[in-house]
Specification:
Elements lengths: L11 H14 L17 E6 L5 H12 L3 E6 L11 H9 L5 E6 L4 H8 L3 E7 L5 H15 L6 E5 L6 H12 L3 E5 L14 E3 L3 H5 L4 E4 L15 H8 L3 H5 L6 E3 L12 H4 L6 H20 L5
Parallel strand pairs: 1-2, 1-3, 3-4, 5-6, 5-8, 6-7, 8-9
Helix pairs in contact: 1-5, 1-11, 2-11, 5-6, 5-11
The structure holds phosphoric acid mono(formamide)ester.
The site of phosphoric acid mono(formamide)ester (CP) has 11 residues, from α2.
Function: Catalyzes the condensation of carbamoyl phosphate and aspartate to form carbamoyl aspartate and inorganic phosphate, the committed step in the de novo pyrimidine nucleotide biosynthesis pathway.
Subunit structure: Heterododecamer (2C3:3R2) of six catalytic PyrB chains organized as two trimers (C3), and six regulatory PyrI chains organized as three dimers (R2).
Catalytic activity: carbamoyl phosphate + L-aspartate = N-carbamoyl-L-aspartate + phosphate + H(+)
Amino acid sequence: RRNMLGLYGVSAEEITTVLDTAESLREISARPIKKVPTLRGKTIVHFFYEASTRTRTSFEIAAKRLSADTVSLSASTSSLTKGETLIDTAKNLLAMSPDLIVMRHSQSGAPHLLAKHIPCSIINAGDGAHEHPSQGLLDLLTIRRAKGRLDGLKVSIIGDITHSRVARSDIIGLNTMGSQVTVYGPRTLLPPAVETLGVRVAGSMEEAVQDADVIIMLRVQQERLTDVLFPSLREYAQRFGLGLRHLKAAKPDVVIMHPGPVNRGVELAPEVADGPWSLILDQVANGVAVRMALLYLLIGPETP
Ligand code: CP
């Protein structure tokens, strides 16, 4: 049984294997019939306790392109609403013999708890403010495709670092692959001792942008901002939003990324989100390939 619970502890060789596998599987999405029989007979449960557009859809599409059978369960339509616990829910799902559960949960560590109790493969599709490993991997693939490499790049991550599972997985993955990460955001949204994550902290938006090969803008997660001092959205946009004026001072070949969903006019000006430097939709396309690779490597025919 194999899991993908986070990028912490995953080696550069293992990350490269996922990215190379994604590259070899991505051409399936360009075929007239976008389907291969690789996972025929396998059953995958998508178990989402939090809203999702990109992750859920791309895991489902990835599974279907590999011919797996898929079932989707959301918190609001399951018996969780009647008080059934997470472990009991998972044990009942397990009684139906799935091969893999893809899980998103608002609590950090929920997929790890499931993995302790449930003898089937688990993929963490985002747990609270902890990790979002498939997003981290698709971001690495997007950067590698755009820049031709991952080592020696300067990547700036801007926004709410404290609550961002995307930032955490990106930082871990980028550090493992040899990129240098700089973070910038409101002081109240930088974790204490943030440098221990292996990042440099910029003192201004200008400093974060200049010299960056890649800029990753984070979503303002209003649903997770109940416990911190936070500027108004208007002030946030003025002080921490990325606009055309910043790009004039950036490297000419800088690329802009964002995990989505984008708050247009808050963390990203619309003309930046839609401009030629934006890789936002490439990230989404690469997400399908990376998730196909994860499914293949975790439960595919050559899995030991
Ligand atoms: N990037 C991401 O996790 O998007 P969703 O919340 O729509 O899945």
